[in-house]
Amino acid sequence: MRLSQTLVPTLKENPGEAQVVSHKLMLRAGMIRQLGAGIYSWLPLGLRVLRKVENIVREEMDRAGAQEVLMPAVQPAELWKESGRWSQYGAELLRFQDRGERDFCFGPTHEEVITDLVRHELRSYKQLPANFYQIQTKFRDEVRPRFGMMRGREFLMKDAYSFDLDQESLDNSYQIMFQAYQAIFRRCGLTFRAVEADTGAIGGSDSHEFHVLAGSGEDEIASCDHCHYAANLEKAVPGPLEEVALTSSGAAMERVETPGIRTIEEVAGFLKVPAHQTVKSLVVETSEGAAILLLRGDHELNEIKASHLLEGEGFHLPDPAAVQKLTGVTVGSLGPVGATLPLIADYALENQTDFVCGANQEGWHLTGVCWGRDLPRPRFADLRNVRAGDRCPRCETGHFSLDRGVEVGHVFKLGDKYTRAMKMTVLNKEGREQTPLMGCYGIGVSRIVAAAIEQNHDDNGIVWPVSLAPFHVEILLVNPKETEAMELAESLYNRLGQANLSTLLDDRRERIGVKFKDADLIGAPLRVVIGGRGIKEGMVEVQSRHDGASQKVEIGAVAEHLIERLQALMAEAVV
Ligand code: ATP
Ligand code: MG
């Protein structure tokens, strides 16, 4: 591709609206432009990268035996009413009507459509297992579209849906997809983790997310430094506590005056006790009522875990005024002794004694509180976020480290949720109707482009993994008016093309300094500088974007030199 004839509108300055590196660099390298909140156009350079990701995904899905289909983006409401999601999905679902005032939505995901398709087409157990996938534009009316391609409203997803006759077969299909995902992210040159994920409102049993590790990631993931256990913070379970179990001093519970003291830090400081000896009380509420959750002062509530524990919908933490209405006590002095709401305490408090908590009276706390003696032992459950350094629940040897991650893929065992609701059956060996089990498997194709940049950049621009680079080689012409240099560039361009290397030729009438800056931004793995004194010496300069190393290569040998280096880079990327 010739840069003089291609729309690559690079920007010198960082665009003000971009908060994360990938968004900045995608705008600066002229890969994308915004049309509206969370809605973008892909320009030629960006589209080349998007297509590379798409092709890797397609190849691995095909290799795994999935069949490619393309379903409509516009979906009739009736299907969503059948599955029950028309009323459940909420404001993320973009709904509209046609001229006949029939309800439709723009697909945020396709469980209903694929189930409708297969209930008409698959009749026999002999046609299972089957797995269908598509690479298609989705729309989700995200509350906060941000970070460019990381969280768009319109984005490109690969979604696959498997159908199996029984659990064992579903487990196998899931495993095949799990491995295909590992191959995909490896081939994309990404550092990633597969983590256990919360199965949330969709229901179902097993679920794993694939996260690209990057500081800007919106998720936090906990991984054991000893075994393979890794989980989204939403779900990560703490192992047994290592701190010395507190033994009771035998001292009686006491009421102490704590004027103006509210937060855990204030209480710990005022009473000169460590934060882990205090207990905090948090009121939560659902449609079924309110409860008080108890956590060690230095631990954080995990709202996802808590919401699964409580009956009813609409889990939330009421504001201070509402708490006062529910309990008759101000937030800062709330405590479990004499509380009227049901109590659930975190497992970390099971062996706690002599703790400090609110006295249910403004300006007072209780010290030396013990379960059984001063209040009944409450129900215990896993309520908290794990912390870095906490023990692993699986091997009980290793410890957690926490990383930030960008979720690029999600695999999920759905079971019979959709097949049952939408009455999809096949005839089994005995000739009886049987409801198949489903799995669903998503990849954020456009999000991968952004995640790859989050992981592969420096101060000057993008440093593409070779498999995703929009071009393998960029040729920089120092002066396009020099005939000899131009001819050399042309012949190199053609030779590399024959060897299936993609080349960007910067033949613009720009200063070489500008070309260098843009080449850094665009991030092709190798670049060749042609022109100036080098030509007279019969040499060109070959530079690596990865480490900045540069070397002079004889003009006659440069094509083979580049081909060899690229092949080496690609081979390295595949292992
Ligand atoms: P998130 O928690 O980031 O909102 P999700 O759990 O809603 O993701 P899924 O429904 O599992 O996502 O969708 C499959 C994949 O689609 C995700 O793993 C992610 O890579 C991608 N994806 C989801 N929402 C977006 C979005 N708003 N922009 C870009 N990609 C997205
Ligand atoms: Mg989402």
Keywords, separated by commas or semicolons:
single chain; 575 residues; alpha+beta; BirA Bifunctional Protein, domain 2; YbaK protein; Rossmann fold; 9-stranded mixed sheet; 5-stranded mixed sheet; 15 helices; binds adenosine-5'-triphosphate; binds magnesium ion
CATH class of the largest domain: Alpha Beta
Q: Which descriptor suits the 3D outline?
A: globular
Strand content: 25-35%
Assembly form of the protein: single chain
Sheet with the most strands, sense and barrel status: 9 strands, mixed
Overall SS class: alpha+beta
Number of helices: 15
Number of strands: 30
- Let me know the average pLDDT: 94
Architecture of the largest domain, CATH level 2?
Answer: 2-Layer Sandwich
Ligand species: adenosine-5'-triphosphate, magnesium ion
Q: Give the N-terminus to C-terminus distance in angstroms.
A: 29 Å
What fold name stands as the CATH topology of the largest domain?
BirA Bifunctional Protein, domain 2
CATH superfamily of the largest domain: Bira Bifunctional Protein, Domain 2
Radius of gyration: 29 Å
Name the poorly predicted regions: none
Integer count of domains = 3
Helix content: 25-40%
Describe this structure as you would to a colleague:
It is a single chain. The chain contains 15 helices and 30 strands. It is of the alpha+beta class. A hairpin with a 5-residue loop joins strand 21 and strand 22 (433-434). Bound molecules: adenosine-5'-triphosphate and magnesium ion (MG).
Write the layout of secondary structure elements.
Blueprint: H1 21-28, E1 32-36, E2 39-42, H2 44-63, E3 67-68, E4 74-76, H3 77-83, H4 85-88, E5 94-97, E6 103-106, H5 111-121, E7 130-139, E8 154-164, H6 167-187, E9 192-196, E10 207-213, E11 219-224, E12 230-232, E13 254-257, H7 264-271, E14 279-286, E15 289-296, H8 303-309, H9 320-327, E16 343-346, E17 355-358, E18 364-369, E19 379-381, E20 400-415, H10 417-421, E21 426-427, E22 433-434, E23 437-444, H11 445-455, E24 457-458, E25 461-462, E26 473-477, H12 483-498, E27 503-506, H13 512-522, E28 526-530, H14 533-536, E29 539-544, E30 550-554, H15 558-574
Helix pairs in contact: 1-11, 2-6, 2-11
The protein binds adenosine-5'-triphosphate and magnesium ion.
Residues 109, 140, 142, 151-152, 155, 157, 407-410, 442, 444, 446-447 line the site of adenosine-5'-triphosphate.
